[in-house]
Specification:
Radius of gyration: 26 Å
Helix content: 25-40%
Largest sheet: 4 strands, antiparallel
Oligomer: single chain
Structural class: alpha+beta
Number of strands: 11
Shape: elongated
Order of helices and strands: HHHEEEEHEEHEEEEE
Distance between the termini: 63 Å
Strand order of the largest sheet: 1-2-3-4
């Protein structure tokens, strides 16, 4: 059942503005909310975010079923840029902060706004009618034939397995800066130190850093020899 907006003949005859359709309002609100979060997180990209919002609301972003996107050029009506795996073929991509050109930003906003709008409409439908079903009205804002869009790939990511409550858990870290990601990874590994090996298993090789799980290099100096390796925070001797 679709959400219905009621208006009266008196309101129409008096020239009162018609209320915005729920699906359209949810879409506009979602785009605005995602854009504001992007501006706060990436102030250096504020201008590109504002341009991306105009492109999204103008219908210039076409999300494809394979996760890619086609974004119409604002300067050339016959040209479209392709955003594939976080890469755009426009000239601004290489010089934009974090490679976030307006086309790539618009594709990301469109994907996340579609997801958020769908959630909001489902919540509204359930609150009004006590049901939770896909809304026919949502087809107005979701690309026809498209699968649920995935979040855009982070510029830097890392996977690590840690032992939590006796279970091996895979943790994925994502960030827009590689050095910051490595620092977060090191902090995570310090919270979950490598457990002692079980009796009977082969011992760690000489020079193995149990703290970071890497092989150190044997170094020599006037005071003797030692094992060490470099981390984002300095040198570690495995202690």
């Amino acid at each position: 059942m679709a959400i219905v907006t009621e208006i009266s003949w008196d309101d129409m005859l008096e020239g009162k503005p018609l209320p915005e359709a729920p699906a359209r309002k949810a879409w506009h609100d979602a785009v605005s909310e995602i854009a504001e979060k992007a501006k706060a997180k990436l102030p250096e990209c504020r201008g590109r975010v504002e341009s991306a919002v105009k492109m999204v609301l103008a219908g210039d972003v076409a999300l494809q079923a394979d996760g890619t996107a086609k974004v119409a050029s604002q300067s050339n009506g016959s040209m479209a840029y392709h955003v594939v795996n976080g890469h755009c073929d426009c000239q601004d991509f290489a010089k934009a902060p974090h490679n976030l050109c307006k086309h790539r930003v618009s594709a990301a906003i469109a994907r996340r706004a579609h997801e958020l709008a769908q959630q909001r409409l489902a919540q509204l439908e359930e609150a009004q009618h006590g049901i939770s079903q896909p809304l026919p009205e949502y087809s107005q804002v979701q690309p026809q034939g498209a699968t649920p869009p995935a979040l855009p790939e982070a510029p830097a990511s890392a996977n690590v397995h840690v032992t939590l409550a006796g279970r091996t858990v895979q943790v994925t870290l994502r960030d827009s800066d590689e050095q910051r990601l490595l620092a977060r990874l090191e902090a995570l590994l310090q919270r979950f130190p490598v457990e002692d090996e079980l009796e009977g298993e082969q011992a760690s090789p000489e020079g193995w850093c149990r703290k970071h799980g890497v092989q150190m290099k044997l170094r020599h100096g006037e005071h003797g020899a030692w094992w060490s390796h470099k981390t984002p925070r300095g040198w570690c001797k495995g202690q």
